Please model this.
Amino acid sequence: MLVDFYRELGLTPEQVEIKLNSREIVASLMQAANVPEAKQPAVYAALDKRDKLSPEAFEEVLAKIELEAEQKEILKRFGESSGPEGLAAIKSFLTEAKVATTGCDSVRRVLELLNAFDAGAYCRFDMGVVRGLAYYTGVVFEAFGKGGLRRAVGGGGRYDQLIENMGGPSVGAVGFATSDVVIADLLGEFDRMPVASDAIDYFVIDADPSVFDVVLKITAKLREQGLATSFSYPRQGVGKQFKQAASRNAARVVIVEADFKTSNTVSVKDMATSNQTTIALDAFLNDPNGATGSVG
Model:
């Protein structure tokens, strides 16, 4: 889903990547290194910061945890592991240490499935992704920009007990979050920001304030059909309303005349061709595109 989102935005694997890891791998690694349980949360946090720190700064973070030299060496050695070679090296180490390798197997399988989904080009294993929240139980992932904006632009993971812990049913789940701000920055960096248009399909005009309630009805019905529709909030003359419609780049204008309550008709004007048609309101609402030709 996240890969499809980036594709829709026009971002390629050369511009954004998703790094995957597993909390099971990290737990097995700490077990193999004999890291005391009391110090494990600090190790999770340290590994999660690895990509954001220089090697010297990472060394200082590990020093504050007061680990044994061999434990620190193991974490430094495998904390930089990435790609298929890194995943294979960690599995080999865990196997030798007679520690569970199920986390390695699950990440490998997820990567295989992503390849089958034609999403694998965006994704790779990286030990530096841990995610700080304690409710994650399996695979975790973060997306990063690969240009000058080398920061996370999305992240999430698997949590098998969270829904049940919050009072819901026992069900596994995967979720992620992203930010419109950092995505906009990333799109701007790669010149992928779409040009927003404020053009609308219809602008509804009342020729007299007495038929303003009809303007609201028409606006609501057109919006229900997925047509971008607006009207003038202040009551003003028809000429000013037409100017407002032009300023909104409206494709069509619907005019509700003062005699509507006796005629039950509206006038529909195509703003590009100036063609204007008078039609019964119900017929127009049943087929808005049939009045003067399709919109869009």
Residues 2-189 form a domain with the BirA Bifunctional Protein; domain 2 fold (CATH 3.30.930.10). The mean pLDDT is 90. The first helix runs from residue 2 to 8.
